[in-house]
Amino acid sequence: MARLDFCFFCGILKPMNRRKSVLFITIIILVTVLGGFFVYPNAKGFSWLSQRMPWRLGLDLVGGAHLVYRIDTSKIPQADLSSTLSGLRDVIEKRVNLFGVSEPQVTISQTGSDYYLIVELAGVSDISQAINNIGQTPYLDFRTVQTNASGTPEFFPTDLTGKYLQSAQMDFDQETGIPYVLLTFNTEGAKIFETLTGQNVGKEIATFIDGRLMQVATVQEKISGGQARITSPNFTQQEVRSLVQQFNAGALPAPITLQSQQTVGASLGTDSLKKSIVAGVIATLVIMLFMMLYYRFFGVLASIALVVYIVFSLVIFKVFV
User: Fold this and answer.
1) What is the pLDDT of residues 261-282, one digit of tens each?
2) How many CA atoms lie within 13 A of 65 on its CB side?
3) Prediction pTM value
4) Which domain holds residue 301?
5) Which residues contact 114 (CB under 8 A, 6 or more apart)?
6) Which CATH number goes with the domain that contains 132?
7) Which residue among 127, 134, 141, 181 is least enclosed by CB atoms within 10 Å?
């Protein structure tokens, strides 16, 4: 005959078979113990379990690099400003993710008319390497060329930038064997490139990477298809391969300049974390003691349910948050 057992997990009375009740409670206890080892990072003998998915802690707890870049928006039309800033943030996030940085924080802030890119890289100890990695992303833009009265060439920006770059690859000139970068623009970029070359037939267009003049080419005819070349007689395979990798990792839609850098230590965060954990454990024990003294047997069951709830909550936070 079925009897009434108290189900501490759900907190209500319901009929349960004795064998099923014992099996259910045993499973809950085993899962809770395993969950405890999973959320506790220094569990002796079970480190392999917790290290499979370590806690993803923020910059204030594990330290790392805090970088602030100024964004040059002088050449960006006001109508495109919002999409350009959003695209810049996405590119930098993609770039730092390729470096293996866990949970990077990339935000855009505005001070007056100036815009800043703030990058927080938790767990990064070599700040100079982080700066080099982010700075290696090249800024690509094309400019028209006009010669002034003194015979000095002047360069004027166009709408075609790395923002519209879809992919890049290395290829070789069939006559000279010199490597070059073959660029492929997206649909919008292809239309801009076609219009740009169509309006400048017989004129020169210069290609710049990070503000450095790479080439000046004379447009022979309107170019369709959305492909362009970056050539240089001094190009080496290593240099071209590096440029291709950087372009494919994400071309910056707007140039950025490092304004400040800071290495954040983890000592203060670690100390605060330890104090918070101790405070939480003490508060939990006080609550459990009160329930057991006041409610007796049912207080014991409620205390067990509280422990189960805490462990399950920490597992969920560790896995999904």
Assistant:
1) 887 766 556 677 788 889 999 9
2) 24
3) 0.48
4) 3-55+267-320
5) 70, 71
6) 3.30.70.3400
7) 127
